[in-house]
Each structure stands twice: as C-alpha cells, then as structure tokens.
Amino acid sequence: MDDREILLTWRSGRQEEAFKAIVEQYSEKLYLHVRSLTHSHEDTDDLLQEIFIKIWGALPSFRGDSHLYTWIWRIATNETLNFLGKSGRRSTEGLSPEMEQKIDTDPWFDGTAAERELAKAIAALPKKQRLVFQMRYYEEMTYEEISKVLDTSVGSLKASYHFALGKVKDALEKTLL
User: Which candidate, 58, 65, 73, 80, places its Cα nearest to that of 26?
Assistant: First the structure.
C-alpha cells in the first residue's frame, strides 16, 4: 500500500488497517534512521514505539502539506533528537569517547571495520551535517524532502552535505590508510 492509499484508508474510517500499513512500510527504514542517530539497539526500539504512538496520535491532523513519508521522518527525527537531548547524549560537535566506545563495542553491529570507521566519522559530524548526510546518503532522500523534514533551505542543505562529505572522506583517509 503506498502513502496515498494509506491516507485514503485512514480517511475512510479504517484507521487500524492504515496504521498497520504504516508500521509495515516504515518500521525497517525508521529503525535504520533512528539507530544511526542513537547507536543503540535498545534505545532505538524504545524510540520506535514512541514514534509510532506519536504518529498514531497526530495522523488525524495530518493536512497533507508534505508527503506522508516526509512527515513521518520529521516526527522520527524530532523525537530522536529530543531523546538524545534529554539523555545528555546529543553532541553538536565531535565524536565523544563514550560514543566511540559505544560504536566499537556495539554487539548488534555486524559491519566491517571500514563500516565501523564510517559510523564514527559520521557520528563526529556537527548535528546538522550528520542529519543531512544520513538522510541523503543512507535514505537517499532528495534535498527537497530533507528541506521539509529539517525546515531548511535546499541551498543550505547542499552546502551541509558537501562539507559533511569532505569531513567523512578526510576522516576515512586518516583511519583507513
């Protein structure tokens, strides 16, 4: 079921069916997005429950000013950043020793050493650059979609992605060469 069909199903009074379709369609993508910000399987699972509760509560007021996908991503991003801020783990600059250790010792991480170094390089980016890089690189979102999620101009996002890409390349060259 695509986003348009989900919304039609919701508006026709079959809310549970529509919500089930949202969960099925977005669970994995949201997990990867939230996990890339928290670096914790347990925190991500907890946050996903909160995110879907928030979506359920807010869906009746969804006006359709953006795509459902973009709206869901904005909720997920805001909830995750709020969680990180409340838990004191929201850094705006640099990779903290705690975050580096969390990435190095994560039992759920099954990537290569290069992927681990990539995760560290991304985690070391300033918050806005990190978000833009993750949404553009991993989720393959357009700049227009990211603009709606982060409420930022496309030009600013392109610059943020360019700077983030340069920093990630530099970090990987230092650690992998």
Answer: 73
In this predicted model, what pLDDT tens digit does every residue of 18-36 receive, in sequence order?
Answer: 999 999 999 999 998 898 8
Q: Let me know: does 45 contact 35? Beta carbons within 8 Å.
A: no
Q: Indicate the pTM of the whole model.
A: 0.71
Q: Which domain holds residue 108?
A: 93-177
Tokens of 58: 């807010």
What secondary structure letter does DSSP report for 137? I
CA distance 150 to 76: 11
Q: Could you say which residues of the chain have pLDDT below 50? A: 90-92
What total of structural domains would you count in the chain?
2
The span from the CA of 38 to the CA of 17, in Å, is 30
